[in-house]
User: What shape does this take?
Amino acid sequence: MSNTRDLVSKIMAPVTSDLLDHTTDDHGTWCEVVGRSMEVMSHLSGAQGETGAKLRHEISSCTEAIRTLSRILGCNKCKEEMRQRAIWILTRLYTDTIGISGSFEYSCCGEDFVRMLVNIFTQDNEYSSSIRGYAGEALSNICFLGGISDATLIIQTSGDVINSLTQVLLHEENETCRQASAEILECLCTHYTKDDEYLHKLKKAILKVIGKILCCGDGTHNGEDIESQCDGTQENNEPNKDAQGFQVETLSTMSSNLLSSLLCLCGTVYNTSSVIDLRPQLDASSFLNNLRDMVVKRSGPTVENLSVCKAAGNMVISMLKYYSGGFFKEDNFGSLIEVLSSASKKMLDLDYSMVCSSASSSETGSKLGRRTLLSLVREAKELHAMAPSTSLSG
Assistant: This one.
């Protein structure tokens, strides 16, 4: 198909010519034709191998088509299905021609598109939760596949992006949006290392989130005292409006997808140099018991459970590498590693098949990780065995 003369141009013609009537609410009689054209474009932009790269290059080269897709994305009159397809096509083109290769040759599908996604995702009063969820997933993929340039672009978008992402994660009802927010924050925490005001805001926001997650069930901490370690402020008696109405779920009641993203975020924080000492705020026994119960509950051989257990295993490894002292000689910690070991045996066949499929470089396989849960457990056991036996108080 990619070698058929002018075929792609003909397929894109309704989009390239912008046949939508922007003076009517339904965009006129050609709206369905444009939608069908976009449907084929979405299939072409997702093609694999050399053929897929050639097709995406041809689509990206068509400035008029890219502009129409961007216009559809920002149009409240367009059907959500069309706007979702616009996000999918533009994201695939961005990660293929800009986010991965680092080339900004096709500026129509570049920085402005990423900024548009950020604005859609963080403005809950202007866009539906469905569209915001799609935008959030797209940003998550861009962050995951990209690097520091994409992280810088997102974090420096106009407005307080970090605070908006935090609010989505802590207060949003739509779970897709919350999961995407956790994944975006994790990537920003990994890639953005410049010592400036943005990093300070990121660190402060991350610690607020981590405090609420790690201290859930502990009535003495709600994340604000952890956050105050960043800026030297002390907790006062005035109620915090950010905490009002917030009811953190227990680890055992969170959905698998959200829980996996949150645990990955926690593990990443322990791996970064910007993290501060959380031990004074962490009720180790309570948290480790909650995490252990969660693993026991999710030890059945499903892809979702495997993702959660791998995230928990990575978090355990990160904590062991970061900390020293007898904190990790607690019986509860050893028990957590043992239930992870038991889960790894139940999921062994599924795990091996997922690791093999991840070799195809699919985004799903990559996010699950290319290490088996069994290998994560083995490393955790080795690190735990080497941990000093002295207690924190000693």
About this structure: Residues 80-99 form the longest helix (20 residues). Residues 214 and 269 are 12 Å apart (CA to CA). The chain has three domains: 1-109, 112-229+253-272, 283-394. Confidence is low (pLDDT under 50) at residues 99-107, 217-223, 232-248, 390-394.
